[in-house]
């Protein structure tokens, strides 16, 4: 069973974290049969943490967890912090496949989405 | 003539700011005839500033500037800081239409782009 774990930075604003939870619900709807489990986790300032999020996916029955960084640029968080958080859980569960997907901003499709967003009345 | 001004947060990492400039070039290619001018500006930590970016668009001949926040959540930057930066320029150039588009994360299409990103090998 494959799980998708969306990783956001986390914010002091509860509304921003709730936005991520809402997005996660939308993702679960759209994922169809690709991911039986769709959850989110936060690098900091909100719960669950990345290790706790991975743990929840495994408890839900995931044999594979795709960690998906909801970040626009390849900064320290993407390059170091997220892999560091994932590593401990991978060591703890060597029989589970944990794969870190590219960060969102790396997808060239973001340009088309930006152009579409630009044409929406504010 | 319509200009598209992509607003990113700005980073201490030069590579992150260069990523935005590269994205801006990609947007210019894809925008076709919709936007004769495509530029970027930064809220902080990088140049040009938002007022300077708007100024550049107007000097390039823009009669309308669409300000597009490259942000994933509706935090203080999107709700207050960007509008505040734009306001001064709008007051300075009342005959130019400056419109702030929704921020990227508000586009529901982001869910599909995330699912697509999840399936890309890292």
What would you note in describing this structure?
- The structure is a homodimer of 122-residue chains.
- In chain A, strands 2-1-3-4 form a 4-stranded parallel β-sheet, sandwiched between helices.
- Helices cover 44% and strands 19% of the residues of chain A.
- Chain A has 122 residues and is an alpha/beta fold.
- The first copy, chain A, is globular, with a radius of gyration of 15 Å.
- The first copy, chain A, has helices at residues 14-31, 50-59, 76-92, 110-118; strands at 2-8, 37-42, 64-69, 97-100.
- The longest helix of chain A has 18 residues, at 14-31.
- In chain A, helix 3 (76-92) links the parallel strand 3 and strand 4 (97-100).
- Chain A has 4 helices and 4 strands.
Highlighted features:
homodimer; 122 residues; alpha/beta; four-stranded parallel beta sheet; 4 strands; 44% helix
Greatest interface (CB-CB under 8 A), with counts per chain: A-B, 48 and 48 residues
Counting H and I runs of at least 4 residues, what is the number of helices of chain A?
4
Major sheet description of chain A: 4 strands, parallel
**Strand content bin of chain A:** 15-25%
Order of helices and strands of chain A: EHEHEHEH
Write the topology of this structure:
2 copies of one chain form a homodimer.
Chain A lengths: L1 E7 L5 H18 L5 E6 L7 H10 L4 E6 L6 H17 L4 E4 L9 H9 L4
Parallel strand pairs in A: 1-2, 1-3, 3-4
Short recap of the structure:
Chain A has 122 residues and is of the alpha/beta class.
């Amino acid at each position: 069973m494959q799980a998708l774990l969306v990783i956001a930075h986390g914010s002091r604003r509860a509304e921003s974290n709730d936005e991520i939870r809402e997005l996660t619900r939308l993702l679960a709807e759209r994922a169809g049969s690709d991911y039986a489990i769709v959850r989110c986790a936060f690098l900091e300032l909100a719960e669950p943490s990345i290790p706790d999020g991975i743990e929840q996916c495994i408890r839900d029955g995931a044999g594979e967890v795709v960690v998906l960084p909801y970040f626009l640029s390849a900064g320290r968080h993407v390059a170091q912090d997220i892999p560091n958080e994932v590593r401990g859980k991978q060591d703890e569960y060597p029989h589970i496949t944990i794969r870190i997907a590219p960060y969102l901003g790396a997808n060239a499709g973001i340009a088309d989405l930006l152009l579409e967003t630009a044409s929406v009345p504010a």
